[in-house]
Design goal:
mainly alpha, Farnesyl Diphosphate Synthase, 2 domains, two-stranded antiparallel ribbon, 16 helices, 2 strands, globular
Amino acid sequence: MNKYKEKINLVLQNFFDAKIIQTAKISKFNCDIVKILKEYTLRGGKRLRSLLMIYAYQALGGNKQSEIIKASAAMELVQTSLLIHDDIMDQDNLRRGGESVHYKYSKYFDEVNEHFGVSIAIIAGNIAASYVFDVIGNTTFSDSKKIKAMQIIIDYLAQVNFGQAEDILLSKKENFTEAGIEKVHYFKSMTYTAMMPILSGASLADYDKEKINALKIYAQNVGLAFQIHDDIIGIFGDTKKTGKPNGSDLSQNKKTFLILKTLEYASKTEQEFIKKLLGQKSITVYELEKARKIIIKTKSLEYSRKKAQKLIGKAINAIQKSTINQKSQIDLIKIANFIIDREK
C-alpha cells in the first residue's frame, strides 16, 4: 500500500505544480487557490480510493501500471472536492489536522468574513472536481475506456450528492430508522468510497462480467462497512489521529447506527442526555465521555462493530469465490480488513 501511496502523491504533486504555473497567468489570487488545493490534498489521507481503483484494474488483468496510477489520482481529487464542500456543510474548521478551506478564507481580510470563506471554498471544490476529468483524460487508455470511466464517475458523483441531501434532511428529523441510515450510507458513502473507484478502475481494463459482479458485491459491502466504522471513529476516535474535532457527529446531529441503537436501549434519562447532545453546538469533554459510556453500556458500539465485520466478511467471500487472480484477491482482502481496523 505504501509504495502506491508515494507514487500517487508524486502524480498529484506534479499535476498541481503544472496547474499552479497555468493558473498564475490568470491571477495571483486564483493561483493561490490551486496552491491551497494542493496542500489540502497532500496534507493527509489514506489514498484508499486510489488503491481500490488500481486493485480493481489489476483484478481484471490490466497491466498499464504507470497509467492506472496516474488515473487513480482522480479519486483523490474527487475526495478533495467532496471534503471541502462537506466541511462547509458540517461547519468544521479542522480537516486532516489543518484548517478547512472555508475557514482559511474566512480570515482572508482583516475582519472575519464567513460568507467570503464559504464562497471561495465552494469554488475551490468545484475546481478540484473539474480536475478529475483532466487527470483521466490525459492518460493513454483508449478513448472509449476513458469515456466509460468518466461516465461512471459522473453517475456516482450525482448519487453522492443525493446521499448528502438525504443526510442533511435526516439530521433535521427527530425520528429515524435503520433503513433511513442505510439509505444515506449507500448513496453518500458507498458510492464514492468503493463503487466509483472500483468500477472506474475496472472499466479501464478488459471487461469480464463474472469478475465485475464479484467486485460490485465487494464494493457495496466494503463501502457500507467503511461508513459504519467511520461513525465509530467520529465518536470514539482520537483527534490527534483523525485530524477532526471529537464529537462533531453528535453536534451535527448525524444519525448513525450508534445513536439509533443507543436511543433504543438506553434508559429514559440516558436517552434525554443523548438527545440533548444531538445538534448541540459545543460538546464538552465530560459530555462526550458520558455519551461514550452510554453507547458502550447499551451495546450499540458492539452492534455497529459486528455489523461492519459482517459486511467485510461478505466482501471477502465474494472475492475469494471469484476467478480474480490470487495477488489481486490478497490486495483487496487487505484493504477490506484495514477498513475496520483503521483509527482514522
